[in-house]
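Homework help thread (please don't just give me the answer)

Our assignment gives two proteins as sequence + structure token strings and asks us to describe the second one. The first is just a warm-up. Here they are:
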Amino acid sequence: MSTDFHFQAIGFIHSPYKEKFGIPRQPGLVTAARIELHLDQHIPASSLDDIDGFSHLWLTFVFHEHIERGWQPRIRPPRLGGNRRVGVFASRSPFRPNPIGLSVVPLLGIRHADNHSILELGGADLLDGTPILDIKPYVPFVDSHPDARGGFVDAPPPQHIVSWDEPLEQHLQQLERGGFPDLRLLLRQVLAQDPRPAYQKGQDGRRYGLRLHDFNILFEASDDGFVVVAIESL
């Protein structure tokens, strides 16, 4: 039996996350993150028939920026503060023998361009340009297990307070009116997850840069959360 397989991407993700830093570590944590899956021209629109009857979809994707970095049998998950190693198969780390991932996302809409179809999705944890290998419907009576155990991630991550001053609030409102709706909510939800690497936590006062959409978001850590200090256009 062959152990080598070849897969072709069926489409690519358009996402506000332009770099790995800042992407939530699980789907559904940042509900304001709207993304689009642009299906390839070789995928006919008829392949989406009746998909609108499902509220959520499973996406199988490639960790395309990790392919050349290999994998590790034991990793340090951020949820454990980077202080303890677990087996890679007890984690959702991108450093896997086969760099593929799985995310469940809400289906918000479908539209068709001249030569391809587009799925409008939400709450995703996917980098812009992520290749998608497959789509499957989320079926609640088999996919939902309320009594399941979550191991060392048995509770949601803590939420941090995110703030900015009044001039920046006005600037954000202008950006939302200019084509980036829900930017304030997206920014709050992304920073509330604490995107910093575990080894940098506790370094209050340090300034960080985070790319969202076409902007570089500059923020600093404080005792009780994060303060956005500037928004730079890229």
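The one we have to describe:
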Amino acid sequence: MAGKFLVSLTNAVNNPDKATVGFVVANAAVASGQETVVFLNVDGAYLASKGYADDIHEEGFAPLKQLMDQFVEAGGTLWVCSPCFKKRGLDEENLIEGATIVGGAKLVEFLSQGAASITY
């Protein structure tokens, strides 16, 4: 039985190292058969906008956009914090493919099902 794993990603261009490593870990989790969710919140919510991650490339890692695409293609779930998204004035029409805007209740439900979590 696969476990559940949540990566809470609070960074984007403000700390590309943490944003990148968050998706490296998420890709490892989904590749190992874990039901994996990346929760984009605080500044991480910016990553949910088309084009935002295109030029983020931390030395020593694959480009962030590539890591994000791999995660979704591998069956990972991408959630975006609704209040964080709205607070930053982001546009739902510009949401990246595979991302879903959710409220806190959805996150609490997933965590209450025994998901392990880590924050970047």
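TA reply:
I won't write it for you, but here's a hint about the kind of observation we're looking for: The helical segments are 16-31, 64-73, 82-87, 104-112.
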